[in-house]
Amino acid sequence: MLTVGSLMLLEEKARPLPKTPLWTIEGNPTVLDEFAKREGTPMVINLWATWCPPCRREMPVLEAAQQEEDDIAFVFVNQGEDKQLIEQFLIAESLELENVMLDPSTALGEETGSMAMPTTFFYDAQGQLVDTHLGELSSATLKRGLEKLR
Question: Which residues make beta-bridge pairs with 23?
């Protein structure tokens, strides 16, 4: 259950990207602000897990948006699962996602105040938070979030 403090953190706009250590699916260490500097574009960050039914349902919507939106980077940060399980899930669901990252200790969820999944963050090209969505994204909800990035 989210606490009032967690909700306040989620609602706080213009926050910079967290510097939480993450790993790429290939096993390389990274942090989101370094990734953002390389990309130089707005970013959608989705916190998810393979055991989460709403996460699983929204993945095709996010995958389609990632393929259609060349000027926005999509990052999929798995919370607490290992590489083998994630790769098996992606293959079983026929998902071709770029920028899958691992957060084995769920530190990013804690740092951002998100204790439930899925949670999606929308950051502008300067790395500032402009919107947050807690729960499953529909195509319409995702579109509204992407409009705030333009």
Answer: 29, 102
Residues 47, 120 contacting (CB under 8 angstroms): yes
Q: Please state, in angstroms and rounded to a whole number, the distance separating the CA atoms of residues 130 and 45.
A: 12
DSSP-assigned beta bridge partners for residue 124:
none
Residues 66 and 75: their CA atoms lie apart, in Å, by: 9
Type of residue numbered 39:
E
3-state percent helix, strand, coil for the chain, nearest multiple of 5:
40, 25, 40
- Cβ 58 vs Cβ 137: under 8 Å: yes
C-alpha angle 86-92-98 in degrees, rounded to nearest 5: 55
Q: What does the alpha-carbon distance between residue 70 and residue 26 come to, in Å, rounded to a whole number?
A: 23
| 3-class DSSP state of 79 | strand
Q: How far is CA 126 from CA 17, 43, 121, in A?
A: 9, 10, 14
Domains and CATH numbers, the chain: 22-147 (3.40.30.10)
First to last CA, the chain: 32
pLDDT at 2 > cutoff 70? no
pTM of the model: 0.88
For 83-101, what is each residue's pLDDT tens digit? 999 999 999 999 999 999 9
